[in-house]
What does this fold into?
Amino acid sequence: MLYLCDKIIDKVSIVKKLVIKLPRKIYLVEDEKNLNILLQKYLEMEGYSVTTFFDGSTAMERINDMPDLWILDIMLPDIDGYELIKAIKEHNKSTPVIFMSARNEELDRVVGLELGSDDYLSKPFLPRELVIRTNKLMERIYGKEKISC
It folds into this structure.
């Protein structure tokens, strides 16, 4: 009986380790191709699993997914970031969102925060700044578990 309990405990430990080692999932919505690819690479180098979208419509099709974080550009060619965050928060209010925008107006930041954004980056910004803000937000929301692949 003791041997069986030890085996079960060993298997539970293995499963916990596997779950902890899964990278956090980020959905990145940015229509500027070069910036999209650059941010994806920086976030992946940090250990995140990143799915990218180049327009709001394609991202809207994935609203029912449960990524750990959405990173949204406000100005997109079709559906803007404001419409996306409304749909995201309607589906799950606790899903964190970071807004980025070339529009550096105070009203844009305020509207984004009022709609439920957790952070706001004005373009241009260094990709490393987005990584740092992402790490800090993930720590606050999900705890300090280390991401590793």
User: Anything to note?
Assistant: The beta strands are 25-29, 49-53, 69-73, 97-101, 119-122.
